[in-house]
Design a protein that fits this description.
105 residues; 4 helices
């Protein structure tokens, strides 16, 4: 169950970074509020996950999900480049996330 909570925390990290882009320096009300809600939710779910999962592992997985997810949102929604090398290194991060899950209790 802790890994599910961690995945939700990572998903909310992607949500709050996406909302941050739309908030335009916190000048837009609704995206700014979405950022705050997603940020708080992400922190809460991460805090629940680290009750069971070692802190270093949980934090690395959380940031990895956020990094890969946010980069993919950037490509899909904001038209950022999807070069072969960029996608390769995103896969390397994803491989690290999967590896940490496999070697963790």
């Amino acid at each position: 169950m802790a890994w599910v909570l961690l995945a939700v925390a990572g998903g909310l990290e992607v949500a709050f970074t996406t909302a941050l882009k739309y908030a335009e320096g916190f000048t837009k009300l609704w995206p700014s509020l979405a950022f705050l809600v997603a940020y708080a939710g992400s922190a809460w779910f991460l805090a629940q996950a680290v009750k069971t999962i070692p802190l270093g592992t949980a934090y690395a997985v959380w940031t990895g999900i956020g990094a890969v997810g946010t980069a993919l949102v950037g490509i899909a929604i904001f038209g950022e480049p999807a070069t072969a090398l960029r996608l390769f290194f995103l896969m390397v991060i994803l491989g690290g996330i999967i590896g940490l899950k496999l070697v963790s209790a």
